[in-house]
Specification:
This protein is 8% helix and 46% strand. By secondary structure, the chain is mostly beta strands.
């Protein structure tokens, strides 16, 4: 399958379906290329150099079996071919003619270049073959001479142009006849080492080794061999190792500016020599060696220093990568030493690198975005480590608690600056620090068992990018160690965090930054600290601290939370935690001890529970003083610190008490409460409270009593006028100093608002709510009531217009918000209906964690509303020119657009990064179908789709997404770790668009656009009612796809044959267009899709319906949804072919379709009728024959015949056939007239059988029933017996089959009318009766047509048979029985109509299938026994013939003559 489509047959639709596997791109042209390439490869066969048809003066062809040798300076050759430029033919070259510099050598034979061994006192003679170019699939041997201490003779081949060794062998060999072999120097130095001279293949052009399979050539392998002790070099401007195997037992060097190594290389038996690559190199195959160095020279083996001489030396920049994700590259080594240049694990590659050292100036190890690497140990002492993909360093079974103790040597050591992790790093123990500044910056994700920061210079770990994270088992700050968490980064330490006495610090200093720690221990007197200037820090374990060890100093944007104990590291016990600005939260499990002034509060906000606040009171205070005191461990600067009581539930008495204590200690108006539930003195929770005082003196407890922000999630607020119980008609959240008495100065969060629900006196307008002053109004909604009214108010009707005026809610301040639902992460889902007209004049409108409906929403220009995590918002009517965003797992439904709406809808989706957390449930925006394409309500300002997002238009049904996916078998994967019903296919991060009547104006931005059923963001109807797709001014950065294209949806130019479809109203740059149909190809030019019909035989060669396929596309009738079943089927098949990647896949689909549509023939329906008729006719013949020599008495004879036959012809239908078992009975009666020596009778047969196809890819079953009637007779003369019969047979075949194209079934009825005439000439030869016989039979077979998708016409066959044979019989009597054994041998030639013709209704294609044998041979062995009036008989017949015909039939009969 290609990336987009597969072939599926939908049983529900009884049709072929095109399945898009990527959801956002549709491929067409690639399929045609692949199928054409497959066909070309099948025709071309293997790659060979081969003698060219033409040549040039300098060409030399060394053919198969021909050997050309250069030994030293001497040439021997016989049989070389050269080009005769006059006669323009190849001719035999002169024997022993040398190849010269101008020679272009084409080699299928053998080319030898070798050193000439010394003769007498002369030394070896080197050999150099210098030619222009070499093209080889033969054998190239380069052979050394004698070894020498210095200046041994060399042998080489050089070319001035290319050297293409695309197959065969390239051997660098030691000479077996050499008298001096290679040897090492002696240990005492008395004997020098002896080595062979260098061998080489050198070209100033490019060198190619082997040939990979491509669209127009087959793969061909070159075998490269280097003998032991041989040093061989392959050198070129570039060296391309495309398809080679290696047997290197010496030293092999590949030298070029660029070496492309696409083959496998594994060190092992037969390939244990050294490999050197000089120049930049790319490895795209599979490499497995023991040691690698990236540098200029190999290391010296030194046991004490722990160095070895590496097997592989890579002298240049190295990259391991593949351009084919289906064929990833791999690189495995036990040791990697990078001392120069760089080593990169690139796209579609994996590497297992063993022990890694990056230790050279300006060196680097890089793991690219789609690469993955592992190492057992890694040290970066110089250069840099760059991780954009996935790197694992010794992440074994260590647990965080014991990792540091059990790993005396660090797994990963970072000793330089500039190291980055933008992808994923997983490690065991990590050390950051050295004698120079060391830094690791994480902008992706990092996981480690333990991290230690320690160095003579600065050692730093930075986690400082959006969505970046580091999860560590333990964290140790030692000499000069610092950690910085910034820019929405996250640090999590699951074990201990330790600060030694030397300086160290953890700084959280940017918005969204977060650090979560367990036990934190500062050594006594340690000067380091945890400082929060922006973001959040949480300490869940024990904090062992010195003065100021935890400091919060960042205004409102900094927060620290302590959930465990706070204890002193030394003698200093006060000021261990300092709040100078920001927020300090002491959680429900926090314990700050019993001392005094442990926490210093200078300014900001303290969040603490009522239990902590009221514990540890000074014992020196009086009882009355203690009623106004707070925990003595808290040291307040009065008037500068606010206190928020963090209990979820408090009683009214507790709230009053705490307000009194906080006022006395921290100052007036410094108390706030985070309570979400309030109880009365009996413990009963309030469900309703007045918003303000209900009377002037001693008012009851009310919401305003909290004197701060309100978070009452389960309490409805009765909005009353101040100091009264009368319900108001207005509310101004965030307003102060007003005179209307409707103000609420703080943030207000309640389950719902209750206003006057009956007509107030003098009311002239509906209830109005404003949100201003930088404050927020949150309506949480109900946990259980799915129709909860969020604002209960009197329904005001304008007396003039008599129209209902809804409640109005206006957000007016840039920092103000209206919120529906609970914004707390992971909060329970809530419900609510807001029957109000909401206007966002400024500020915002957010929806979280619930299902909500809003009557209308107007978002003013440049303002916005958001549907966020787990929010589900339905807007009955949307208006305005602002923006509505859908993010997280939000869902937005807009049921209508008010006139003039130009609002933008932005569906942000999830991050494009593979490692980013992604939502399991698709984000999508829904818009109900507009009523008119011309209505202004059908226009949106823009729909912006980003990453994995979904736009669904034309419905408000929640199941539309999953139903569409199920119907069309589209699949999503959001790369999460949870069970996902759409997890089988990786999702391509592009927008998928499904639309009906929505017009999106300029501003649209998508990574991909797919047009389904001619629908897209904008769909208009033409005069014929056909869909037309238009994107008005939008831009698409990626592919544009057309799916389910129909001929009538395109505008066709009769001259050019091009069908066009306007996609963009403005001029647009050319885009690649993919069409989900093999018969169509196209592109986008200036905003218009241009589609052209392809040649059917080229894109689907051999498809049996190509004639009709071409016709419907040429006539532009194609339509997958056509009411014409054949047109729909052919279109669907072409769309299915678009997803096939090989000729074999197309052939299989075509064969399945052909076999299924022709299953009646291939299942044996025709042959069932012919075979049943044959068995009936044989029964009649056994009654009429005189060949057995038995007497025939005058009178009436009643007889019965039982028949059983097993017939098969495996190749009758060409490449397939049938088998069939038939069982039946014949009952007959006749009268013999002795005076005429004649018989006349009639017979009836009934039977059944089963069988099916043989040799088809489709299993076709046939259950058959038959019935027949015949009249017959014979007339005996002295020398001849003449026979005749006239009959009728009817069969019914129940055909069933199933294959990839679907289920196929039909009831095939056939009628056979037959007439036969024959003669027998009985004679006697000794005691044997010999009866030659001959006859003629005519059968007319009528087969009824079938209904359905592949309905057929009736078919008629006129079949003639002329049986010819001889019967041998004997007769003898025993015990009163007359016995007659018989043997018959016959041949039954047939002529007339032998082929079944399948004519499909509505199509011009006919399928012809041979169903009648030409000349089968039959042999019958029988025995008859007669006594008195009874005659019994048994027979066995063997039939055989061409097409692997083999029939076996048995019968038994009985007769009684009255």
């Amino acid at each position: 399958m290609n990336k987009s489509f597969k072939v599926v047959f939908s049983k529900a639709r009884s049709a072929l379906m095109v399945v898009n596997e990527a959801t956002s791109s549709i491929q067409a042209k690639g399929t045609k290329t692949v199928i054409a390439a497959a066909a070309a490869a099948m025709i071309a066969g293997g790659a060979v150099a081969a003698q060219p048809e033409t040549g040039a003066t300098s060409d030399v062809y060394i053919g198969t079996g021909v050997v050309h040798s250069l030994t030293g300076a001497a040439t021997t050759s016989k049989g070389n071919q050269i080009w005769d430029t006059t006669k323009r033919v190849w001719k035999t070259a002169e024997e022993n003619k040398a190849l010269v510099a101008e020679s272009t050598v084409i080699l299928d034979g053998t080319l030898n270049v070798g050193v000439k061994l010394a003769e007498g006192s002369a030394g070896d003679t080197q050999a150099t073959l210098a030619i222009t170019s070499l093209e080889s699939t033969g054998v190239v041997n380069v052979t050394a001479g004698n070894a020498a201490s210095s200046a041994a003779a060399t042998a080489k081949i050089t070319t001035t142009q290319h050297a293409d060794l695309i197959g065969g062998q390239l051997n660098f060999l030691a000479n077996p006849k050499a008298t001096t072999k290679a040897a090492a120097a002696s240990a005492d130095g008395s004997t020098q080492a002896k080595t062979y001279g260098a061998l080489s293949l050198e070209s100033t052009g490019n060198v190619t080794l082997g040939q990979a399979a491509t669209a127009d050539q087959a793969a061909s392998v070159l075998a490269v061999k280097v003998d032991k002790d041989i040093s061989a070099t392959i050198k070129g401007a570039s060296v391309n190792v495309k398809n080679a195997t290696f047997a290197n037992e010496g030293v092999l060097t590949l030298e070029a500016n660029q070496v492309a190594f696409a083959s496998d290389y594994t060190k092992g038996a037969g390939n244990d020599g050294q490999l050197t690559v000089s120049g930049s190199s790319t490895f795209s195959g599979n490499v497995n060696v023991d040691s690698v160095k990236v540098g200029a020279t190999r290391s010296d083996t030194n046991t004490q220093a722990g160095t070895v001489e590496e097997t592989v030396l890579l002298n240049g920049a190295v990259e391991v990568s593949s351009t084919d994700a289906k064929k990833p590259a791999s690189f495995t080594t036990g040791l990697l030493n990078v001392t120069a240049n760089s080593f990169t694990v690139g796209a579609n590659a994996t590497a297992d690198l063993g022990t890694v050292t990056v230790g050279g100036t300006a060196t680097g190890l890089t793991v690219a975005a789609s690469g993955a690497a592992t190492a057992s140990k890694m040290t970066v002492s110089k250069g840099t480590l760059t991780v954009s993909g996935d790197l694992t360093v010794n992440k074994a079974a260590d647990t965080p608690a014991v990792a540091a103790a059990t790993d005396p040597v660090y797994d990963l050591t970072i000793g330089t600056a500039g190291n980055t992790v933008a992808g994923k790093l997983t490690a065991g123990t990590v050390l950051i620090g050295a004698t120079t500044a060391s830094e690791l910056t994480v902008t992706g994700t990092m996981q480690a068992d333990a991290v230690t920061l320690k160095g003579d210079a600065a050692a730093k770990l930075a986690v400082n990018a959006a969505d970046s994270s580091a999860t560590l088992g333990t964290l140790t700050f030692d000499k000069n160690g610092t950690v910085e968490v910034g820019a929405s980064g996250t640090l999590v330490v699951t074990g201990d965090t330790t600060f030694t006495k030397d300086a160290g610090s953890l700084a959280v200093n940017a918005a969204g930054a977060k650090a979560t720690l367990q036990n934190v221990t500062f050594a006594e007197g340690a000067t380091g600290k945890i400082e929060v200037t922006n973001g959040d820090v949480t300490v869940n374990g024990t904090l062992t601290a010195n003065a100021g060890s935890l400091t919060v100093n960042g205004a409102d944007v900094a927060k620290a939370t302590v959930n465990g104990k706070v204890v002193a590291a030394g003698t200093t016990t006060s000021g261990l935690v300092v709040l100078t600005n920001g927020t300090l939260a002491l959680g429900a499990t926090a314990d700050i001890g019993t001392g005094a002034d442990v926490v210093t509060l200078t300014a900001g906000t303290l969040e603490a529970t009522s239990a902590l606040l009221t514990a540890n009171l000074k014992t020196t205070l009086t009882a009355e003083q203690q009623k106004e005191a707070l925990n003595q461990a808290l040291k307040f600067t009065q008037g500068s610190v606010a206190v928020t009581v963090s209990d979820d539930k408090l009683s009214t008495d507790q709230i009053v008490d705490l307000q009194k204590r906080i006022t006395a200690t921290a100052g007036a108006n410094k108390a706030a409460f985070a309570v979400t539930a309030i109880t009365d003195s009996t413990g009963k929770e309030y469900t309703e409270l007045f918003l303000r005082n209900d009377k002037q003196t001693t008012p009851s407890f009310n919401i305003s009593t909290l004197a701060g922000d309100v978070h009452l999630k389960n309490i409805d607020a009765k909005v009353n006028t101040n100091e009264k119980t009368d319900l108001a008609t207005s509310l101004a959240v965030g307003a102060t100093g007003g005179t209307n008495g409707n103000e609420f100065a703080n943030n207000l969060g309640v389950q719902s608002l209750i206003f006057a629900t009956t007509a107030p006196t003098g009311t002239t307008a509906p209830v109005a709510v404003t949100v201003d002053g930088g404050k927020s109004l949150t309506l949480y909604g109900s946990l259980t009531d799915t129709v909860k009214e969020l604002v209960q108010a009197y329904t005001y009707t304008d007396e003039t217009t008599k129209k209902v005026k809804p409640t109005t809610i206006e957000v007016k301040n840039a920092s103000s918000k209206l919120v529906l639902g609970d914004a707390t992460a992971g909060a329970a889902q809530r419900y609510g209906n807001l029957n109000a007209a909401v206007t966002v004049t400024d500020g915002g409108f957010d929806v979280y964690n619930g299902v909500f409906t809003v009557k209308s929403l107007k978002v003013e220009a440049n303002k916005g509303a958001q549907v966020l995590d787990n929010g589900n918002l339905t807007i009955k009517s949307l208006e305005g020119a602002g923006k509505v965003s859908v993010g997280g797992t939000g869902v937005l439904t807009v049921e209508s657009l008010a006139s003039g709406t130009t609002a933008q809808v932005a569906v942000t989706g999830s991050g494009a990064s593979e490692t980013a957390p992604k939502a399991k449930v698709a984000k999508y925006f829904r818009l109900a179908e507009a009523t008119s394409k011309t209505d202004a309500a059908t226009t949106l300002g823009a729909i912006v789709m980003g990453n994995a997002s979904q736009l669904v238009v034309g419905t408000t049904v929640d199941s539309v997404l999953t139903k569409f996916m199920a119907d069309n078998q589209y699949t999503y994967d959001y790369v999460d770790d949870t069970a996902d019903p759409f997890s089988d296919i990786k999702h391509v991060d592009s927008a998928t668009l499904i639309a009906t009547n929505v017009n999106v104006e300029a501003g649209t931005a998508m990574t991909g656009l797919t047009v389904f059923d001619m629908g897209s963001i904008v769909v208009e109807k033409d005069q014929l009612g056909n869909n037309k797709a238009i994107v008005r001014g939008g831009t698409v950065s990626g592919e544009i796809g057309l799916a389910n294209v129909s001929g009538k949806s395109l505008t066709w130019d009769a001259k050019t044959g091009i069908g066009s479809l306007a996609l963009f109203t403005a001029a647009h740059e050319e885009n690649r267009l993919t069409v989900g149909d093999a018969m169509l190809d196209g592109k986008v030019v200036n905003g218009t899709a241009q589609v052209k019909v392809q040649n059917a035989e080229e894109v689907m060669p051999g498809f049996f319906l190509n004639k009709d396929m071409q016709r419907i596309y040429d006539e532009h009738l194609f339509d997958a949804a056509s009411s014409d079943a054949q047109i729909a089927m052919l279109t669907q098949f072409s769309q299915a072919v678009n997803g096939m990647t090989s000729l074999g896949e197309l052939k299989a689909a075509s064969q399945a379709l052909e076999e299924g549509s022709n299953s009646a023939v291939l299942g044996g329906a025709y042959n069932a009728a012919l075979d049943a008729g044959e068995q009936f006719n044989k029964a009649l013949d056994r009654r009429m024959t005189v060949a057995n020599g038995l007497n025939r008495a005058e009178g009436f004879t009643l007889w019965a015949d039982v028949i059983g036959t097993s017939n098969q012809a495996k190749k009758l239908y060409g490449n397939s056939g049938y088998d069939l078992d038939l069982y039946g009975g014949v009952l007959g009666g006749d009268y013999t007239f002795a005076q005429y020596d004649a018989t006349l009778g009639a017979a009836l047969t009934v039977g059944t059988g089963s069988g099916g196809s043989k040799g088809t890819a489709t299993s076709i079953d046939n259950d058959v029933d038959f019935v027949g009637f015949s009249v017959y007779g014979n007339k005996r003369c002295p020398i001849v017996n003449s026979k005749f019969d006239l009959g009728y047979m009817q069969t019914k075949s129940d055909i069933s089959a199933a294959n990839s194209m679907g289920n196929w079934s039909s009831d095939v009825k056939a009628k056979a009318f037959t007439f036969g005439f024959g003669v027998e000439l009985p004679t006697t030869v000794g005691i044997v009766n010999v009866t030659p016989h001959a006859g003629i039979r005519y059968t007319r077979l009528d087969v009824e047509g079938r209904d359905g998708l592949f309905g057929t016409d009736d078919d008629k066959l006129n079949v003639f048979q002329a049986p010819l044979g001889v019967t041998f019989s004997g007769a003898f009597e025993t015990s009163g029985w007359n016995l007659a054994p018989t043997f018959d041998l016959s041949v039954v030639p047939a002529f007339g109509d032998k082929d079944a013709t399948t004519k499909y209704n509505g199509l011009t294609t006919e399928v012809i299938t041979r169903v009648v044998d030409s000349s089968p041979v039959q042999a019958t062995l029988g025995l008859s026994a007669q006594k008195d009036a009874f005659t019994f008989g048994i027979n066995y017949t063997l039939g055989a013939g061409s097409d692997e015909r083999q029939n076996h039939s048995f019968n038994a009969n009985v007769r009684y003559t009255f």
